């Protein structure tokens, strides 16, 4: 039986299998783009990322756009002020960002509660059968179950 890797450190070497390499690239690319999105959303940073797949196909992500950031970075044709964002649009985007962050925080709190509830259930499964518990242990189990019930 194969043992799971868990949090074991994986050696960073090139993958020999081409299909595995392509799948891993796709998953990692999405993760990098997601992190760039978070960075631009949370910090208001202008971000551009260009990566090349194992088959040399370019993929890019940019906020506000790849072209505008690349032009600014390379010093060629900086964007004119006509492209300056409208203050109303910025306020609307910030309001949407704040709402999304509030929803994310609520979901993270809910996830944490569910994890604690799952841990409590796992702990109760590891306990000996109820018939073999003393009255003291039964009272403690009742208190733990009531506490888990209050979490939900």
Automatic annotation (TrEMBL):
Gene field: LOC102581698
Organism in which the protein naturally occurs: Solanum tuberosum
UniProt xrefs under InterPro entries: MEF2-like_N, TF_MADSbox, TF_MADSbox_sf
PANTHER family: MADS BOX PROTEIN, MADS-BOX DOMAIN-CONTAINING PROTEIN
Higher taxonomy: Eukaryota, Viridiplantae, Streptophyta, Embryophyta, Tracheophyta
SMART domains: MADS
SUPFAM superfamilies: SRF-like
Gene Ontology terms for molecular function: DNA-binding transcription factor activity, RNA polymerase II-specific; protein dimerization activity; RNA polymerase II cis-regulatory region sequence-specific DNA binding
Keyword Transcription regulation attributed: yes
Protein's cellular compartments: Nucleus
UniProt-recorded name of the protein: Mads box protein
Coiled-coil blocks: none
């Amino acid at each position: 039986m194969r043992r799971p890797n868990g949090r074991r450190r994986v050696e960073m070497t090139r993958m020999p299998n081409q299909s595995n390499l392509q799948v891993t690239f796709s998953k990692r690319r999405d993760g990098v783009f997601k992190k760039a999105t978070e960075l631009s959303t949370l910090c208001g940073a202008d971000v551009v990322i260009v990566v090349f797949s194992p088959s040399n196909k370019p993929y890019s992500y940019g906020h506000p756009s790849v072209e505008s950031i690349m032009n600014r970075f390379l010093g060629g044709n900086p964007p004119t002020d006509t492209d300056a964002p409208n203050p109303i649009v910025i306020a609307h985007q910030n309001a949407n960002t704040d709402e999304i962050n509030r929803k994310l925080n609520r979901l993270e709190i809910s996830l944490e509660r569910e994890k604690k509830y799952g841990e409590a259930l796992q702990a109760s499964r590891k306990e000996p059968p109820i018939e073999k518990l003393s009255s003291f242990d039964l009272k403690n189990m009742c208190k733990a179950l009531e506490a888990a019930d209050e979490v939900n």
